[in-house]
Write a structure and sequence with these properties.
single chain; alpha/beta; eleven-stranded mixed beta sheet; two-stranded antiparallel ribbon; 16 helices; 41% helix; globular; binds NADP nicotinamide-adenine-dinucleotide phosphate
Length: 456
């Protein structure tokens, strides 16, 4: 692929592009170039005041330096999306004018071609939160990126940190990674409104040709789930469990009711395990029928659970679940439910990953009321950056950050347990959870980042 030419961006003069070979293996240089979308609201710097993305990048760079002593480093390439892009590329377009633009023009306003070219060429990105575009045509930057680059897996790690106020008493046993299919299911947008011409024609066809008795006034939605889409997601989840030496992959589905979509997802998932990972995996049934209830050393157990029971399971027996692979809608619900178990929206990291590109991003929004205040929690962007490090295979640096974040939360927890008035080292959102401490006891985003660096 030839290097793109940009309208407004100046590509880095240092660093090397990551590439993906014919077998789909990522080739990672010692100095990979990664696109950085700082984001809007709390994501962006305001004058000298750092946003959460700048704070997170500082910790990531420090951890890489500490782990590899200058042998490795990330070269960040600042690119733009959201309000930041609009201000840089088209500052004169007013909100009133937006609805008169066509969908492509609206997209270019919030997601310029420069940014798409950069991501296409460099394949990796770290993204802060972005304002949802206004206007009726182009709706979502995230959805556009997902489709354009076929980022088919939405990956969300969920774990507990000591000191974070979690609503569930089993929260300390939560440590899971959810792989949500990102491209299929009812999210394809194939929907027809009640009493619309298309809904009526479709209902008429189904009733006439297949003998159903759907009420003619119904709205209709279609749920496509394919073997290709299911298998590539489950393949990624199993490979992740193998690479990280995790005990199990659970296929979460509602196949007892939706047999040929969710049920098929489960069957295709087992098929991938059987056909492509026969040495590394064992099914839960085999664990009991062949191995007396104890999985052979080093094998990943493949099991499945019905979606509704899974919502009980993650609350009652969270430590039995490590990697969860699931279709799109289930994944949407379970990701948020699992994150809620452990508390702290500022901690929810995520990534959208495909075979030729990956975007790592905080799952929270721009929290506009905290813009330019240097007080929001940078952990979600930072932990998304940790996922980026893991994707690069830089596990030592990733581990350093995880331990330092744990230590930073734990020390404030211990200080707070001694009673009010202690000096905490966490941001306002965590500080206010401690009895006798309020938001004002929190430190700034950058002080919190510096404390994590201190613990590296
Ligand atoms: P939000 O930005 O996530 O903020 C809601 C509340 O969550 C905040 O007021 C704050 O609670 C807490 N919060 C979020 N991030 C935090 C952090 N890093 N540190 C501490 N607290 C944090 O949700 P919203 O207000 O509904 O959405 C605002 C904008 O973000 C909208 O334009 C929305 O479309 C967009 N959005 C973008 C993304 C994305 O880019 N991925 C995702 C969701 C929403 P307290 O006020 O209680 O402290």
């Amino acid at each position: 692929m030839t290097a793109p030419t940009f309208d407004r961006l100046i590509p880095p003069t240092e660093g090397t592009r990551v590439t993906i070979d014919g077998q789909g293996r990522w080739r990672i240089p010692e100095d990979p170039i990664v696109c950085l979308l700082r984001g809007d609201g709390i994501g962006m710097d305001v004058g000298e005041v750092p946003g959460i993305t700048t704070c997170a990048v500082k910790v990531l760079d420090a951890a890489v330096k500490k782990a590899y002593g200058g042998k490795r480093r990330i070269v960040w390439f600042d690119v733009h999306a959201g309000d930041a892009a609009r201000q840089k590329y088209n500052p004169s377009v007013t909100d009133e004018q937006i609805n008169s633009l066509d969908e492509t023009q609206q997209r270019q306003l919030y997601l310029p071609d420069d940014t798409l070219k950069a991501f296409e060429y460099y394949s990796l990105g770290l993204k802060g939160p972005l304002t949802t575009p206004i206007g009726k045509g182009f709706r979502s930057i995230n959805v556009f990126l997902r489709i354009r680059f076929d980022l088919y897996a939405c990956v969300r790690p969920v774990r507990y940190y000591q000191g974070v106020d979690a609503p569930n008493k089993n929260a300390h046993r939560v440590n899971m990674v959810i792989f949500r299919e990102n491209t299929e299911d009812v999210y394809c947008g194939i929907e027809f409104a009640s009493n619309s011409e298309k809904a009526r024609r479709l209902i008429d066809f189904l009733n006439r040709e297949f003998g159903y008795s759907i009420l003619p006034s119904s709205g209709i939605g279609i749920k496509p789930i394919s073997p290709e889409g299911s298998k590539r997601l489950v393949r990624m989840a199993i490979q992740y469990a193998i690479d990280k030496k995790l005990p199990s992959v659970t296929l979460m589905h509602k196949g007892n009711i939706m047999k040929f979509t969710e049920g098929a997802f489960k069957e295709w998932g087992y098929e991938v395990a059987r056909q492509e990972f026969p040495q590394q995996t064992v099914t839960e049934d085999e664990v009991y029928s062949k191995y007396g209830g104890k999985a052979p050393e080093g094998k990943v157990i493949i099991k499945d659970r019905i979606a509704d029971s899974m919502f009980q399971q993650i609350q009652l027996r969270p430590d039995e679940y490590s990697v969860i692979a699931t279709p799109n809608l289930n994944g949407d619900y379970i990701s948020d439910a699992a994150a809620a178990l452990t508390g702290g929206i500022g901690l929810a990291a995520g990534a959208n990953i495909g075979d030729r590109a990956a975007m790592f991003e905080a799952t929270h929004g721009t929290a506009p009321k905290y813009t330019g205040k240097n007080m929001a929690n940078p952990s979600a962007v930072l932990l998304s950056g940790v996922m980026l490090l893991e994707h690069l295979g830089w596990d030592e640096a990733a581990r350093l950050i995880n331990r330092a974040v744990e230590a930073t939360f734990a020390e404030s927890d211990e200080i707070a347990r001694k009673g009010p008035g202690g000096k905490l080292h966490v941001t306002y959102d965590i500080a206010r959870q401690f009895p006798g401490y309020g938001e004002k006891a929190g430190v700034s985003s950058m002080e919190f980042a510096n404390r994590i660096i201190y613990h590296l």
